[in-house]
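Final report, results section. Input specification for complex C-07:
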Amino acid sequence: MSENADQIFVLLRHWIVGFLPAGLQEIAGVVLSVIAIIAIFPTLFALAVWMERKGLARMQNRIGPNRAGPFGLLQPIADGIKSLTKEDIVPLRADAVVHFLAPVLLVVVVFMGIAVLPIGRNMTLVHMDSGLLFFFAMGASTELSVFMAGWSSRNKYSLLGAMRGVAQMISYEVPLLMSSVAVVMITGSLSLEKIVEVQNQYTWGLPHWYIFTPWGLAAFVMYATAATAETNRSPFDLPEGESELVAGYFTEYSGFKFALFFLGEYVGMLSISGLGTTLFLGGWSAPFAFLGWVPSWFWFFSKVLMSIAVFIWIRGTLPRLRQDQLMNFAWKFVLPFTLLDLFVAALWRFMSDGWARWVVCSAILLAVYALMGGVGMSRKHFGLRKYRYAE
Amino acid sequence: MLGEGILRGLAETARNFVGSFVSADRLTTVQYPEERIAPIEATRDFPFLVYDGGDWEAGMRCVACQICEKECPPKCIYIVKSADKKPDALGKPQFYPARFDIDISVCMSCQICVEVCPFQAIKMDTEFELSTTDRFGGLLFDREKLAKSNEHYHKIHPTEAAEVDARLAEEKAKADAKATAAAAAAAAKAAVPSKPVAAAAAKPEEGEARS
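Structure output:
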């Protein structure tokens, strides 16, 4: 029974495909999976927007949307209808083709990243040996979309937002990759399915998730920081800082193109949470051995939504960073620390199994964290500003 | 250590998040169309014209002196003075506004018209649900729409309205005393050798007393 519930979507696909002639079966199966992904992730997007609006409201002692449907659950649908019926304005002097392509590219690229994520047992759309690499290639393409949007709009705010966005995303792309490399080093594979399989083991009923190792925890924290910056979420939301840049790179977008940017941003968040789940939180594996009967896809999606909740929590808490703080943090703290974490992961791999490697690895990471956090990131006390003029 | 402040901040937001479900007094939101808070007494938004008695046209205090029209900073008042005179609430013949329009899309609620009015005829209203689908005609209020009874004034600004009423009553008493005195003087003069001007002379005096 639990076996069937776990594989329900796989069996459903087999059943539907069975009606078609043999030659069409393979392609029909792929099309069905794509349709499922394109249906599920926008639904999750709507849910995430609702969670965000309700959660932020509660953190600020407000109620949040409560008019459209029970508990305001239909609010995203109302917003969608609104943005569909709005006028689509393209600035007179904008580069119309690129202006149109930017949101489309963002959504396409973001959905392509999801293709390699193992959503459940036997539920990966594309079985790729270098899935992680493919995901990062797709993730890096979002920068292109951001810059296309900013450049083609011919608006100073758009361009400033895009420049900030590209600078930030390239800076944080490096630690994002580096923190994942630690996982690849331990697993010995770039295949995301393999990474989940390795984590899906239990000792005394507890899982072998990478977050429960010293190097894994450090890599996860760095990954989460870089992922927040990569998806332009608060406190790293400089590219779309409302208070200084109107809306950043999508200032000149209205109607459904704006909705596409919104969708792309949230689906990007979902997919990067999905990757984080896959790499560090055991993907679709259950948190305890005795919960193994619960369908695997349920665990994946609940972990992703938990990550989204943390994103929202952080957004409700932290103020926006300044540009120099953002860059300092990326290059002076996050990147060196992930490099150190690579070294610690190698140490972990080559030390013999036992308590010694736990102590050594934790001690190194903690000491360096305290040292770098205390000395490198200590608050500078600025005096009166001295102006220097060019001669 | 780095990150301590972040954790403290996260704890704070979590406390607010949970608290908003636990204690109802944290949520200050009023579900507006269903729930309403009574406006405080000093609330004001747009002017209205006060009338006494039951009939707005007869009881209107405004005498079309046009001071408010001249003083209005954004020039949102338009008055046409009547050609004839009609008896006001006190029964005295007065000019009246043949037209009195306020464009509330221009009005900035500064209350200067109220302060300059010598007749206590224009006051500030508290009605704020004025949205309309016609942004030109719907926001241009004419005489009939502006006229509101003194009872309405008492309802929205009780303290202020009581003061105004007291002042008006005082002025009226003074005017009455003067009128009776003048009438007595006129009668006395009429009793002595004929002086036809006396009756006419009493009139402008009365007008002054009214103002």
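The beta strands of chain A are 202-203, 206-207. The longest helix of chain A spans residues 22-59. This concludes the modelling results for the funded period.
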